[in-house]
Description:
Elements: H1 2-12, H2 17-31, H3 39-53, H4 60-66, H5 75-89, H6 99-110, H7 118-131, H8 133-181
Amino acid sequence: MVRLRLVIPMVRSRQPPENTARSVAVGLLWAMTPTFGIQMALTCVHWYIARTFFNRDFNVVVAMAWTWVTNLFTLAPAYYMFFLTGQILLGRWDDLSGYESFQRFWATAVGNTNPFSLEAWQTYFSVIVEGWGLALLVGSLPFAVVGYVIGYHWTLHLVRRWRRIRQEKRAEQVARRLLKEQGEI
């Protein structure tokens, strides 16, 4: 599923490799922030600003797809890493709670409500903004920057390599066709 939804659109894009690399990098940048639920909207805003004011275009659909790296299944572990990193960066060494207590607090905060209900989202935003907001935000910044840099360079390398291999295969096919037409095969 990951290959089908994330990798194949990335390598099949007809845009320049730098454009595709920027798309993945922006998607990973927003995926590694505590903005679950509005990451795709933030990606659209980022695309509009980058395109309008900085003349830097990227494929907004590919970028939005890469925000799915953080999803309902990866959200709690990602936020826990953001929280711990934020606590360390803020010098709060005395408040490094274990994952079990983090998970208990998370379950208590969200409760047994439908995760798509208004009540769940209100509780979610209250916990994030009032409870752990600063630590999550500060802790997510290194992950967002590293995700952006690694995503850009990895994608640039992958797309260039894939295109080079595809070009070599096409050249071999043309050579075979020419030899076949000349009757040498």
